[in-house]
Amino acid sequence: MLGWVITCHGELAQEMLDSLECRFGPLTQCRAVNFRQGLSTNMLSRMICDALHETDSGEGVVFLTDISGAAPYRAASLMSHKHEHCEVISGVDATLLEAMYPLRESYSSADFRNQIVVAGAPGVSSLWHQQQKNPPFVLLHDLYEK
């Protein structure tokens, strides 16, 4: 089963997790990380790292964030590059997560990423989709050496 780390501004992450638990009961491999006012980005990164390790069973983890490019999204993006089968999704809300919840058990992280982006369009995106629009920077020197 895919682990979920919901990380958003204010109390939104915990509110989304509470909403999911009201509907589905206690959730395994699911954590909320709130980015409260006054919390440093360093502490946010540490909290996200802890949540990643708590939710990862080896099948992958999906970071679910509220705003693309904001601190929770950036911290999750940096963390995702260090671990296999991690996806970062932005633009989520409680209704979308309720609809996507049943797919946690049967989808790979990449399949889940693609499905949630389609289901939440046009406001939902992923780090992977953003990287396809803006491929990584390559130095011309590196191109000529090959």
From TrEMBL:
**Per the record, a Pfam family?**
EIIA-man
Q: Which CDD domains match?
A: PTS_IIA_man
Gene Ontology BP terms = phosphoenolpyruvate-dependent sugar phosphotransferase system
Q: What does the record give under GO molecular function?
A: kinase activity
PROSITE patterns reported for this sequence? PTS_EIIA_TYPE_4
Q: Where does it sit, as one GO cellular component term?
A: cytoplasm
Q: What keywords would UniProt list here? A: Cytoplasm, Kinase, Phosphotransferase system, Sugar transport, Transferase, Transport
- Quote the protein name from its UniProt record: PTS sugar transporter subunit IIA
Q: Which organism is it from?
A: Phytobacter ursingii
* Taxonomy of the source species: Bacteria, Pseudomonadati, Pseudomonadota, Gammaproteobacteria, Enterobacterales
